[in-house]
Write a structure and sequence with these properties.
This protein has 227 residues and is of the alpha/beta class. Helix content is 35%, strand content 26%. Strand 1 and strand 2 form a beta hairpin. InterPro entries: AAA+_ATPase, ABC_transporter-like_ATP-bd, ABC_transpr_LolD-like, MacB-like_ATP-bd, P-loop_NTPase.
């Protein structure tokens, strides 16, 4: 379970202080799927970034099974991101110097040495990689660079990279924003199916009613607060 209490993130805009996120309380049980909704500027991406340890909150607490996330030092945060988090960024964050296959394998590499230890060469890894490639319909893209792909193809590669290391917490920032309905359903089918089978928690920041409909729980953020 992840428990949030009094979580806040603020930014300076000149002399003015902007409240990017204010979330008094939330609980996310293991294995549940959540749609994080609200208008632009309500803190959806900020919440995901705080949960991933990408940014630090200015106040409050995030408690996980691994400890108090908001108290972690940088090494502990790196381990948390590497092992527990599968993050699908809104802008994908694919590395153009790498091929599609290498970008996906990077997800396993970042999981504290699975790649280095030869995990990427095991039969289990290869079967998982092939399953993701086929499910995302990107088998024919393996040797291409991200810059040669459409935004929809890049999105599907980003999803495969996030899931390859089998994370316990999947954070997806507008994961269907670049996709048509068919591919949106494909992505959400994969994300929700993975989380159910692996007892992983899913948080999806979204404006899309179709994406929201895949999640059995909803948390609504408002500018400067939580509804």
């Amino acid at each position: 379970m992840i428990t949030i209490q009094g979580l806040e993130k603020r930014y300076k805009d000149g002399d003015q202080e902007i409240v990017a996120l204010h979330l008094p309380y939330a609980e996310f049980d293991r294995g549940t799927q959540w749609a994080v909704v609200g208008p632009s500027g309500s803190g959806k991406s900020t919440l995901l970034h705080c949960l991933a340890g990408i940014i630090r909150a200015d106040g409050g607490q995030i408690k996980t099974g691994e400890g108090i996330l908001t108290d972690f030092d940088e090494d502990a945060l790196q381990s948390w991101r590497s092992i527990e988090i599968g993050y699908i960024f809104q802008d994908f964050n694919l590395i153009d110097a790498l091929t599609v296959k290498e970008n996906i394998e990077l997800g396993a590499y970042l999981s504290l040495g699975h790649y280095v230890s030869g995990y990427n060469k095991t039969e289990q890894f290869q079967e998982r990689l092939q399953h993701l490639l086929e499910t995302m319909d990107i088998v024919n893209l393996l040797n291409k660079r991200p810059s040669a792909l459409s935004r929809g193809e890049q999105q599907r590669v980003a999803v495969a990279r996030a899931l390859i290391k089998e994370p316990s917490l999947v954070l997806a920032d507008e994961p269907t924003a670049s996709l048509d309905e068919e591919n949106s359903r494909r992505v959400m089918d994969l994300l929700t199916s993975y989380c159910k089978q692996s007892n992983a928690t899913l948080l999806v920041a979204t404006h899309d009613p179709l994406t929201k409909s895949y999640c059995s729980n909803v948390i609504t953020l408002t500018k400067g607060g939580h509804a």
